Amino acid sequence: MQHQNPPYSVLDLLGTDRVTPATRKALLTRLSEPPVTNPQFFTEAEFGRLQRVCARLMPQAETDSIDLAGPIDGRLAGKNTNGWRYDDLPNDGDAYRLFLAGIDQTAQVLFNLSFDTITPDEQDAVLRAVQQGEPSGDLWVGFAADRFFEELLAEVVEVYYSHPVAQQRIGYTGMADQRVV
Amino acid sequence: MKTHPTEDILDAVVIGTGAGGAPLLARLAMAGLNVVALEAGKFWKATDDFATDERTQDFLFWNDERLTAGSDPIAFGRNNSGTGVGGSTLHYTAYTPRVQPDDLRLRTDFGVGEDWPLDYHRDIEPYYDELESFLGVSGPAAYPWGPARKTSYRYAPLPINGAGRLMEKGCRDLGILTSPAANAALSAPQFQEGYGWRSACTNRGFCQAGCNNGAKASMDVTFIPLAIQHGAEVRAECLVTHFERDSQGRITGVVYVQHGKQQRQRCRHVFLCAGSVETPRLLLLNNLANRSQQVGRNLMAHTALQIWGEFDEPVYPWQGIPGALISEDTHRPTHRAGGPADFVGGYLLQSIGVMPVTYASQMARGRGLWGATMHEAMGRYNHVAGINILGDCLPYAHNYLELSDEKDGRGLPKPRVFFSLGENEERLTSHANGLMRAIWEAAGARNIWAFPRSAHVIGTARMGTDPDRAVVNANGQSFDVPNLYICDNSIFPSALSVNPALTIMALSLRTADKFLMS
């Protein structure tokens, strides 16, 4: 069962008076934000790996290119949280770093290569092992891998579906909520 | 707005401006008392500041980190407390069912849980009547469940959205009675003292991320302007950390941090209305009002399982009041499609709409979808509808709140909340799971899936008649500190099988009236 959403342009919609000034400002700002190239929280290597992870979790057409890793880096650099954390996970920043080191080790165990150089299918296998809470490698000992994966995935999809381009893709027009008289 | 110097000895300081604090603030101000409300968050102007964008609106939630533990850990952040003048009413769905009288006597009827030290008709119903008129609740002319109402709801029900129509269809097939729900959102414009005209709801469906036209009866467009009109001061961005006390243990001042600077407000009485996490946290931090050792204990959370399904026809799940339709046939369920009702208490059923980021996030957490499967599932977002329960929960020794050793950004210990469902909640949820799936199948849903969750932390400073087993008396007054009153959902002795906001407001008005009589 696949439905066709009627095509529309979110950019055109944002230009109309069906959108409030506050909404227009928020969404145009997000649309115009350049992708993060100099991470503030992660090292270059960690950030590159996080980008590879995001590309597997929410694969995108080249033309979409919604920055997923950048807002995560920004949040962690600003020490912001979503208001809660599973008690069995370390703080968000440490958990991300542990995960990024851990998937590299798991890739070494499974494929004798870095996570950064294995194929997308192999990367998916590593990520599935994390999601199932059974990744190989001693870095994972004592780390609730499946819990962290849930947190990671929720953050990535929230960033993705907050972007007007992704919202256009699913046919969401709720941002245009003003009656025009 | 009238302001008071901190050296003045005020009649009362109210901590928190949500459903617990705002109504009593207005009541005290209208009685001529000098009152100041301290609110941790900002004073927003929703019409200008609120965007129709979930991510931008994250500022409505209490985002200081809370640690969540137990076998069914509770999600906080957008799922719970709010911040800003108006508290969590800024992001509540405005769903305002009344409790039924038997909600208040679980122990009498089932031998477990707790009775309330209040009588429905004497202590709560008159406040419901007052509140529904003042807030401008929209609802059906004749509500099918509970005691007969004195009058109809003030306004006609809001339009039934896609999920509501589908739930109506599924329930009709199964012989389950439904009704348009009571929602504290206007179906016609209303003049609000101190605020002006509130618009009728435009069916933006954005209640949980902030109403931008005053249609939803959040406190910032109802009781707060009324309070200010009558001389109350609302001091925003003030986080309370300590209390000053005299040799008898009575509170003489409230210490708070505003813009990085510590301040002290002297006062004769304190009304603590910070919600069921911040209220016990503040009490535990100050070792206050806890001779019973019940502060932080008896923690409950509503069973709030959601069942989602996809339909052939477009639903547009962001449109309309999210909780448009209700059934309370499951309040004390008899044998139905869900199986035998082998549990204490009951639940209500509500249709639910959903905003896209919230839905995607729930599919990530609940279904673990990613890659192509997430894209496919979200490609059907426009065809999605949900049903939700709001059900009872019993208090257990294994569910509680404590202070952790970890400090938050303000240097205060983070709260740690333990929550695990008991057998009763498992049975209730299982019954609801079966019933809601049957409703969705009858309505023609495909790809039905369940999102287990709980909502509304309750009971962490409960009211009662026995000072050894409760923190406050039936009037909300601390047994230990006579000039301290508590009013929010932390004082609920039992969870109730309805959304709590209207009942918190009713207790708030009652607490003010009892205080003014004393």
Describe this protein's structure.
The complex is a heterodimer of chains A (181) and B (518). Chain A is mainly α and 181 residues long. Chain A contains eight helices and one strand, in the order ααααβαααα. In chain A, helix 5 (92-111) packs across helix 6 (120-131). Chain A is elongated. The N and C termini of chain A lie far apart (37 Å). Chain B is an alpha/beta fold and 518 residues long. Chain B has a single domain, classed as 3-Layer(bba) Sandwich (FAD/NAD(P)-binding domain). Helices cover 24% and strands 20% of the residues of chain B. Chain B is built from eleven helices and 21 strands. Chain B has helices at residues 21-30, 46-49, 106-110, 120-135, 162-174, 223-229, 275-285, 356-367, 372-379, 423-442, 501-517, and strands at 12-15, 35-38, 66-69, 179-180, 190-192, 196-198, 233-235, 238-245, 251-258, 261-266, 270-272, 300-303, 306-310, 325-327, 347-352, 384-391, 400-407, 413-418, 446-451, 454-458, 484-486. In chain B, strand 9 (251-258) and strand 10 form a beta hairpin. In chain B, helix 5 packs across helix 10. The longest helix of chain B has 20 residues, at 423-442. The relative contact order of chain B is 0.20. Classes of the chains: A mainly alpha (181), B alpha/beta (518). At the A-B interface, helix 2, strand 1, helix 6 and helix 7 of A face strand 3, helix 8 and helix 9 of B. Strand 1 of chain A pairs parallel with strand 3 (66-69) of chain B, so a sheet runs across the interface. Chain A: InterPro entries: Gluconate_2DH_su3. Chain A: This is Gluconate 2-dehydrogenase subunit 3 family protein. Chain A: Pfam families: Gluconate_2-dh3 (PF13618). Chain B: InterPro entries: FAD/NAD-bd_sf, GMC_OxRdtase_N, GMC_OxRtase_C.
Instruction: Give, in order, the helices and strands of chain A.
Output: HHHHEHHHH
In CATH terms, what is the architecture of chain B? 3-Layer(bba) Sandwich
* Major β-sheet strand ordering of chain B: 4-14-15-16-13-19
Tally of structural domains of chain A: 1
How many extended strands of chain B?
A: 21
Low-confidence stretches of chain A: none
Question: If you compute it from the alpha carbons, what radius of gyration of chain B comes out, rounded to the nearest whole angstrom?
Answer: 22 Å
User: What pair of chains forms the biggest interface?
Assistant: A-B, 49 and 61 residues
Query: Largest beta sheet of chain B, briefly?
Result: 6 strands, antiparallel
Strand-residue proportion of chain A: under 5%
Overall average residue pLDDT of chain B: 97
Assembly state of the chains shown: heterodimer
- Would you tell me the structural class of the helices and strands of chain B? alpha/beta
Overall domain count of chain B: 1
Annotation, overall tally of beta strands of chain A: 1
